[in-house]
Write a structure and sequence with these properties.
alpha/beta; Rossmann fold; 8-stranded mixed sheet; 4-stranded mixed sheet; 22 strands; 18% helix; signal
Amino acid sequence: MQLRSRARLLSIGVAALAAIPLTILGPAAASDAASGSTHATARSCATAAPGHAACAALVRTDIVATKTVAPNATPSGYGPSSLQSAYKLPSSTAGSGRTVAIVDAYDDPTAEADLAVYRSQFGLPACTTANGCFKKIDQNGGTSYPAKDGGWGQEISLDIDMVSAVCPNCHILLVEAKSASFADLGASVNRAAATSGVVAISNSYGGSDASDASYGSYYNHPGIAVTASSGDSGYGASYPASSHYVTAVGGTTLSTASNTRGWTETAWSGAGSGCSAYNTALTSASSFGTGCSKRAEADVSAVANPSTGVAVYDSTAYQGYVGWMVFGGTSVSSPIIASVYGLAGNTASIDNNYPYTHSGSLFDVTSGSNGSCSTSQWCTARVGWDGPTGLGTPNGVGAF
């Protein structure tokens, strides 16, 4: 199995940059049909050996990053107030006493310092090792951290910033796998699940569809919500999102709107979706017409389009990009949904069927597509369940 982290990275400064003409540079270009935009990009990580993860972050090469933000200015990309508004979240009042865990590969040596910059910028309470809010461990539970990796460091910063944005009262546990092998990442999930106080675990990586018979023990943790990114390459099932035991998280394009909600969403063209060839369908999904005989992906979703991405701070330079950046990909949506589970505080008594029995507490996403499929709902948003966005996006915490 070849695994991929689910971050897409847009490196930007603080000025208004929408008018800058884009020139296609470097080895890759990411095009998003929903937004009609094309970005010059380069991959953050090299191709990995079989059985190892390679982060799929795409860094914007046509805009130079900056380390600081001008006085009285805010970074580009959505911050905590926007995400809390879009998803009607009780972020200021809920989450205390709960821990959201992040599992990634390799070490981000500046993770805690960068988190402090993010939280200070947006007026969030400090979350540090000293005050007990933040904890970083290796996959064995100690502090023998693995080798530094700048690409995975960007992923880590994205993940912990999204927990901060959505559940600022939650504690954060970062578990760093010693390598990007599936075994080490899985062992890190088990380590997170064995840590006191953890109510949700986010996994912003994935690979080709695989069997729970081989890997399911890493993700089967009753009483803890385990989320997994559905992918950034459009149609095609991805593991662990295709596991019977996780909440598979798809992606949307999130835009402000002149409506009662104040926001609108469509399916993001890169969001992963599909039917597992191996794993058992969720019991409560049977009445939603997924068209899958086995596990259908995704279950729920949140913002993932890089064109409507989120602000992130990371100072571990990679390929020359450092500072305030904008990220997209389902690496954004997975920690968002894990943190919504943290806000709800129900994980001890529910499982991943719960959103299906409470779909009325989600914003249904009914337009947009991630490609063309033999069964329309696997690729195209519609009323009710569809592959790219699942049942929809959070409307408060009632579905979690």
